[in-house]
Amino acid sequence: MLSQSFLAFESLEPRACSFAIPLVAMKRVERLASKTYLFALYIETMHGHKFNLQFVGLRSQIEDFCGRLKANLRANMQRMRLLRDFLPTLYSEYMLADPAKQHNNSREPPPGGLGQLFKYPGDARKLRDKSKLRLWAEYMRDHGRNLTVVRLPTFQKLIRVGLPNVLRGEIWELTSGSMFLRLTNPNLYADLQKEYAGRTSLAIEEIEKDLNRSLPEYPAYQSEEGIERLRRVLTVYSWRNESVGYCQAMNIVVAALLIYMSEEQAFWCLSILCDQLVPGYYSQTMYGTLLDQRVFEALVEKTMPILWEHLVKSDIQLSVVSLPWFLSLYVNSMPLTFAFRILDVFFLEGPKVLFQIGLAILRINGEELLDVNDDGSFISILKDYFTRLGDSAHPTSQNDKLREVTKFQELMVVAFREFSVITEDIISEQRRKHKSNVLDGIENFAKRTQLRNLHNTGKLVTVDLSNVYDRFFQALQSSRLGLGPTKTLMDIETFQIFMQGIATWAVERHDFLSRLFHRWDTELRGGLSLQDVVTGLAAVKQEDIMTSMAYFFELYDEDGDGKVDREGILQMSEGLLFITRNLTPRILSDPHEAVVSPSPEAQADLQSSNSSITSSSTPTPPQYDYLSSVSAFIQRAFEYATPDDLPTQLIDTPSDKSNAALDPNHPLHITLPTFRMVVLADEALERFFAHDFSDSIRLMPAKGAIRQKGTLRELFDSLVSDSVRVAGEVKRRIDDMERQAREQQAREDAMAMRAAAAQGESLHVQQQILLKQQQQQQKREEEEEEDDGADVLEGLEIDVPEPRPALEM
User: H helices within 454-560, ranges in order?
Assistant: First the structure.
């Protein structure tokens, strides 16, 4: 496959051979003559590796491919200069450099993670770090490194047995794809740091709260150096992706990355995580995590029906346990040395690894879990299992090699062999199946929460508030609200769309809508929140004629001095015409009849006269035309307006001189009492402010509105209500276990002291025996380290499983 920047290949046989090489990393491309195939290409990379690509197909298609490859190579020539600064940041370049040149130039290892300063987690000797590094050096010499590596089956095996510490960050960067982002976006991380230096936000405040709670067991995060690196990466990412900002557990994941990666590497790896590998995990609604919890429960129900039936019967909430596994990528759930082994495979194979590991944990501990009937015991069993991952899985076996197999190795074997049928296709299918229900649950939960927090709702009932909420976010959102709100404030354009859905007169942009918008924007933010809209609608919807007239008057009293000038009177009349042009006044004899838009026949009748409408049967009450009422309003308003240069009094002048009020050389104004007097002089306007203006806004349900259904109990109630109960029970059980452990230890210490006294052994003799045992153990470990490394793959590797039939869901 050829793109603008990459040449990629994957064999038909899964995992047999694949590569994705940037075009900037190609040193030479030639066309070869071939007798067997129609076409072949010779490619040499910047690291000196050479291979041939042979094509089978229509010659026209092959020629087209080569033409595009040639054009893309030329287009990427200018970007080759990026390699000069990029390659020295990779440890593999330092490791495989010519020793003579490295010595002469006194090269230092490239800057890396905090592990360079504070040591890497775990015992390097027990982890066989040197042997693994030697195997990786051999593979990279033969099959390329970093940007030009070719992935063969051995590549996957080397990753599954665990990465060497100094290469772990680079391999994570390579397998996740963030290495290519860093290559094509040089200096972006540093530029963002400079651009947003000194600025604050709500996300930064949340980051500061969690900094000291990020992997406190690792020494680097007890120092200023580690905290500062973590702060910078989280802060820069919050500015780059403001829709996400900062979310729960993000600090744990970034803290883990920074142990093996530089700040820039961790920044781009976090971007890949949030955008591609686990989308929706670190968002405002956490919809990705909640969706995967539902998928995980479905997989447990399918693969372990007996255990699932027991969990349901015992009312044990699986998501209380499994959600932290997925959210922290197991980093916060088990010892770091084992969690990093899971991350090794996760970055290579994708999110399916999270499901496979979770299912394997439940399968291995299934018998014990079937004996518990409450959440506390369930959590306690799994927590104890995680603390013993380094112990032998078969301590009583007569086979020496079998006794050396640890519980963690057993976990990896079960995950990648027994649950190899859990593929990305199955996970994607399950996500599609449950996505709608999960999003409905998130939206219902968010809706209920926001509606409970609303105030100043006036006479709006619960149904009205629900409809306002639906229409508000329907106008704002271009996607499902459960995916995370992109905006929370409504601008003037969106406000017009919102009003079109609830008011028949808001069909086009008008000065009245702008005035209404600015009146509701009490915080002067240039946008309306849900609370602003609710408060504004509550003020409009109250059917009190005096309050309604005052509200309308204040929309045009721009300076708040209680006066509306000549221009304001004209704008006020235009506003009345804008609202009433599609309305018919209420029938005076029935003040409770709904306002409706007049039919064409009714419009013709209204335009003919203002007299009573008669029929052959019972006569109907009179109706009035708003157009004539508004015309009369303009005349009376200017007639009774007060000149600015005279004392406030009513103007008693003949009607034929009223047009003199239009003279701009004589400024005048009306006050609220005058406005009320003019309105009350007209029956149609009186009825408009008493009822029709309020009723013209109809809070009807929106199309596709969020339905109030039952909550996702397993996703929300278990994370809120049950968590409190579970936490208390777990604490009590842990305290009991610790107390029993202390008592047992005290008894054993007393027995040891009595035995030592009885045998007459002194403390000095005991210390000598212990020292001798430690020396013997160290000697054995050194002998093991001198092996050629072959047993790393032989004893620890987990074979790539044979393809199995897909699991039917």
Answer: 462-476, 492-500, 511-520, 530-540, 545-556
Cα(158)–Cα(174) distance, integer angstroms: 14
Each residue's pLDDT tens digit, 538-571: 999 887 899 999 999 999 998 888 999 989 999 9
Q: Please answer whether residues 552 and 544 qualify as being in contact, where contact means their C-beta atoms are separated by less than 8 angstroms.
A: no
Per-residue confidence (pLDDT) for residue 736, from 0 to 100:
62
Distance from C-alpha of 153 to C-alpha of 514, rounded to nearest angstrom = 65
CB 767 within 8 A of CB 113: no
Q: Which run of H or E residues covers position 9?
A: strand 6-10
Q: Is the dihedral of CA 83, 89, 90, 93 positive or negative?
A: positive
- Contact (CB, 8 A) for 344 and 337: no
Sequence letter at residue 650 = L
Question: Distance between CA 472 and CA 474 in Å, rounded?
Answer: 5
Query: Does 186 have pLDDT greater than 60?
Result: yes
> The dihedral of CA 742, 746, 751, 756: what is its sign?
positive
Question: How many CB atoms sit inside 10 A of residue 797's CB?
Answer: 15
3 state DSSP class of 406: strand
Given the DSSP bridges, would you call strands 668-671 and 563-565 parallel, antiparallel or unpaired? Answer: antiparallel
What percentage of the chain reaches a pLDDT higher than 70?
76
Q: SS in 3 state form for 197-246?
A: CCCCCHHHHHHHHHHHHCCCCCHHHHCHHHHHHHHHHHHHHHHHCCCCCC
DSSP state of 503: B
| Run of H or E residues at 54 | strand 50-55
Q: Alpha-carbon distance 166 to 113, whole Å?
A: 9
The whole-model pTM stands at 0.75
416-431 confidence digits (pLDDT tens): 999 999 999 999 999 9
Phi, psi for 222 (deg, rounded to 5): -105, 10
**Dihedral sign from CA coordinates of 785, 787, 790, 794:** negative
Q: Which residues contact 31 (CB under 8 A, 6 or more apart)?
A: 39, 40, 41, 42, 66
